[in-house]
Design the sequence.
């Protein structure tokens, strides 16, 4: 398959889901649910099939492929076109996005079937796929930015999908606004690039960057660009300090959480950083910042995850934490390790969210883990697949997560043992809270009594109805397994979680991506050489495995053997526990520091003083003044002959005076 | 030997009287007469200048002014009669239908 | 001047008309002083003889009485009188401050009809013809404006007859 024939196919991949979104969006209101599902799945599946086809015909020798769809901006020497690009990195992302996306689309058919706005949901999901694929296949930063903004939009639409619910609408707004803050940094980076490189094209910029020296001393152009890009990535990928939108985003339906906030959108930041590896390599300070932010976020989010009781919130903080790992990897120069973890994370985190959705669906809308328990009896398939995902995320071999996480820890150790240590502690905490989730949800006895008494309340039924669109609660009191349309993707992802890690066996993955990061791999190789021989590697591997096992053990102790212990521990820790459970009050802090001053300032100053006082007043007063003037001038038109004569005489006097004056001068 | 300026002064006074009459008087006919007075004052000025500059054109112009004054008087009085028929008053303050 | 002032002062229009006739007669005398005999003659015949007669006829026809007091116009008094005063004062001041031109001798000018006629029918022929058309239009207009409406005319004749 020559590049000539392969390249045009590139632009069809994003356009297929766009067509699906348009069809469902415009015509879906009156269509039958079957038709809507068929359209959505067909276009998404077609994109996936196309991706597989391209992957099969992909050859590293003729990479990268690029395709120019249309001209866009031509302004002097600056030009940006709708260009599409495929190299190894985009291929990996492409397969992940289309594959996992397609599976989640299938799942959503089952999950959202009873919802009234079904066509809207499927349309938005396809729209998201379009933007994400545009992001991944972009050849320049501007098309990437279109995709970037577009997935933010899709995220807003989907988080606030049940828009009649205040909390959902607010969460959508929050996500979009926090994203925008990150985008601000991204945009400034783009402006810097335009100014200094005259282009936004990847090839052009990276070639130019590679001629520049490394900015070892600290601040410089590339450092600035790198830091600003990181700001954008922090917003999109929920790192400190812009992560606050992700837990709130759990207001959206679970497939949304799976697709957007686990597998794909939040990984856009990692992808962007990896794509800009050429810039970051030459800006060590920026790279260090990336690593530090990633590491701290990983630890920070993991600690919050311990104390959460909502099953989706646990997974949300887990996502933030795992993204921190990916940024840590990029920060020490191991870009391919970061992408590897991105891929495995998509598998097991997507699976975790989908399984959680299956649980929620099966017990009638309940999300609080304290009200669950013993569900392994009622939902064996969900239990099995979720268990596999938990093993993967905890980093237990031979599941996928082990390979990628271990790779990251190994590289991190090469950079600094501090990164490694924090990474290991975070791995312990991760394992702990994931198994805690498993035990609370599936272990022990079903805490039926707690569920039953809630079902007597009206608002519980209404919430359930709002979530699943049915008016009469179904299956209460008796949790049930989900339909096969929801289980099949779970199984598929479980298989990937088991075997997906073997892609990286023996550094194959890294070699595959090497042409993209050829500079970075040198940096990483140096660090690995510094780290020493393979004995050390196996030693560290053993440490991480044992740490994962310890987490499991602790969870087992606290939640299976002695379930009354956690409550006592929480009580004894008192304030600390409350702080953690309330996410360290970060949201409240932001509200006081940023939100309230802006809102108040906006209301008082901009609204009252400027808008009403100055602008409105100007317009109103000028109208009033005109009216006053005309009120007074009106008296001139009295119809009274003599007053007219008076005016004439006065005017004549003025003219005479003027003429005399002129004559005298 | 009467200086020119005296003639012009008289002309100005006549004209001013005419304007004052126009402003002060309430009877339409009297107002019209004030207009005639104004025209007369102007005529005097014309003739005076004609004599001063030895230009007969001034006197010819006086002739024309008189013609116009006659025409205007005729039409104006016809209008006054018509207004009197409809409004039944000769008071100019009452004829104020033109006001806004 | 006396006549002019009297015009202002009198309250009955007929008195004002009579004083205006006095003004015109006086002006005719002035014209004679200036040597404009033809103009003086025309003034007496046309102005005093025809126009003022017209005025007097109208006053008597409409039975105009003494002027009544109505609400005057403030603007007229406030603006007009000062305006006139200022204008008049300015003109007077200008005139009186000029170095006086040489006086005009009595009868120095040839104001005889012969010379005026020559001017009128040679140089000023066009304005002459135009004014005659103007008079024609004025006559028509006056007739139309002053005529009674059809039905009322017959009714009035019936009443009188």
Sequence:
């Amino acid at each position: 398959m020559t590049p000539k024939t392969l390249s045009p196919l590139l632009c069809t991949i994003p356009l297929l889901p766009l067509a699906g979104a348009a069809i469902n969006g415009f015509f879906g209101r009156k269509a039958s649910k079957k038709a809507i599902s068929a359209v959505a799945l067909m276009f998404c599946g077609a994109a996936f099939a196309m991706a597989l086809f391209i992957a099969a015909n992909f050859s590293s020798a003729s990479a990268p492929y690029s395709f120019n769809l249309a001209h866009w901006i031509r302004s002097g020497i600056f030009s940006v076109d709708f260009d599409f690009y495929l190299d190894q990195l985009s291929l990996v992302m492409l397969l992940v996005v289309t594959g996992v996306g397609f599976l989640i689309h299938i799942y959503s058919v089952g999950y959202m079937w009873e919802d009234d706005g079904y066509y809207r949901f499927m349309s938005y999901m396809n729209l998201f796929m379009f933007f994400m694929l545009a992001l991944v296949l972009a050849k320049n930063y501007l098309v990437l930015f279109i995709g970037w903004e577009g997935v933010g939009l899709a995220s807003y639409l989907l988080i606030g999908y049940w828009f009649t619910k205040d909390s959902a609408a607010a969460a959508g707004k929050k996500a979009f606004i926090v994203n925008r803050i990150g985008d601000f940094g991204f945009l400034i980076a783009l402006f810097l690039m335009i100014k200094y490189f005259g282009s936004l094209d990847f090839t052009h910029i990276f070639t130019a960057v590679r001629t520049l020296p490394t900015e070892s001393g600290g601040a410089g152009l590339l450092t600035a660009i790198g830091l600003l890009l990181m700001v954008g990535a922090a917003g999109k990928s929920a790192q400190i300090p812009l992560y606050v939108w992700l837990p709130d985003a759990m207001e959206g339906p679970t497939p949304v959480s799976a697709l957007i906030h686990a597998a794909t959108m939040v990984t856009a930041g990692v992808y962007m950083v990896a794509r800009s590896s050429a810039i970051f390599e030459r800006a060590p300070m920026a790279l260090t910042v990336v690593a530090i932010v990633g590491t701290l976020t990983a630890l920070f989010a993991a600690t919050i995850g311990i104390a959460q009781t909502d099953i989706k919130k646990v997974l949300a903080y887990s996502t933030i934490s795992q993204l921190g790992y990916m940024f840590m990897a990029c920060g020490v120069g191991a870009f391919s390790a970061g992408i590897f973890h991105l891929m495995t994370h998509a598998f097991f985190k997507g699976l975790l969210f989908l399984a959680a959705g299956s649980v929620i669906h099966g017990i009638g809308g309940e999300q609080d883990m304290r009200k669950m328990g013993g569900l392994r009896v009622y939902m064996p398939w969900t239990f099995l697949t979720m268990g596999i995902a938990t093993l993967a995320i905890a980093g237990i071999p031979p599941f996928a997560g082990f390979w990628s996480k271990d790779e990251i820890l190994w590289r991190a150790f090469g950079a600094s043992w501090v990164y490694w240590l924090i990474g290991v502690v975070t791995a312990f905490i991760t394992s702990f809270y994931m198994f805690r989730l498993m035990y609370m949800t599936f272990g022990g006895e079903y805490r039926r009594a707690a569920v039953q008494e809630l079902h007597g309340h009206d608002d519980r039924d209404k919430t359930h109805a709002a979530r699943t669109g049915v008016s009469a609660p179904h299956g209460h009191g008796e949790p049930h397994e989900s339909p096969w349309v929801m289980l099949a993707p779970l199984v598929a992802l479980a298989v990937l979680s088991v075997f997906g890690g073997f892609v990286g066996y023996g550094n194959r993955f890294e070699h595959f991506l090497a042409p993209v990061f050829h500079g970075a791999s040198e940096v990483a190789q140096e660090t690995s050489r510094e780290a020493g021989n393979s004995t050390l590697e196996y030693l560290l591997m053993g440490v991480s495995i044992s740490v994962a096992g310890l987490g499991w053990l602790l969870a087992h102790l606290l939640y299976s053997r002695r379930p009354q212990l956690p409550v006592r521990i929480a009580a004894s820790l008192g304030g600390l526990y409350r702080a953690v459970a309330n996410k360290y009050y970060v949201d409240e802090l932001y509200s006081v520091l940023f939100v309230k001053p802006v809102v108040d300032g906006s209301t008082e100053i901009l609204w009252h003083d400027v808008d009403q006082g100055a602008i409105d007043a100007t317009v109103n007063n000028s109208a009033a003044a005109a009216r006053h003037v005309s009120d007074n001038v009106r008296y001139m038109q009295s119809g009274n002959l003599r007053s007219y004569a008076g005016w004439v005489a006065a005017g004549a006097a003025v003219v005479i005076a003027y003429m005399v004056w002129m004559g005298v001068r | 030997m009467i200086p020119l300026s005296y003639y012009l002064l008289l002309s100005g006074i006549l004209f001013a009287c005419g304007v004052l009459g126009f402003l002060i008087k309430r009877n339409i006919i009297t107002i019209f007469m004030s207009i005639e007075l104004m025209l007369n004052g102007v005529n005097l000025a014309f003739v005076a200048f004609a004599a001063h500059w030895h230009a007969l054109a001034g006197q010819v112009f006086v002739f024309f002014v008189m013609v116009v004054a006659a025409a205007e008087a005729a039409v104006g009085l016809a209008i006054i009669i018509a207004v009197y028929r409809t409004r039944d008053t000769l008071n100019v303050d009452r004829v104020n239908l033109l006001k806004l | 001047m006396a006549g002019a002032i009297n015009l202002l002062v009198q309250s009955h229009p007929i008195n004002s008309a009579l004083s205006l006739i006095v003004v015109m007669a006086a002006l005719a005398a002035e014209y004679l002083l200036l040597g404009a005999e033809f103009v003086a003659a025309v003034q007496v015949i046309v102005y005093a003889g025809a126009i003022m007669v017209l005025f007097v006829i109208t006053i008597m026809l409409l039975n105009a009485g003494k002027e009544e007091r109505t609400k005057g116009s403030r603007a007229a008094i406030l603006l007009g009188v000062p305006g006139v005063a200022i204008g008049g004062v300015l003109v007077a001041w200008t005139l009186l401050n000029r170095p006086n031109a040489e006086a005009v001798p009595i009868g120095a000018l040839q104001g005889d009809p012969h010379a005026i006629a020559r001017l009128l029918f040679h140089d000023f022929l066009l304005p002459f013809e135009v004014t005659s058309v103007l008079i024609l239009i004025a006559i028509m207009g006056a007739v139309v404006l002053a005529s009674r409406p059809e039905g009322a005319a017959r009714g009035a004749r019936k009443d009188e007859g």
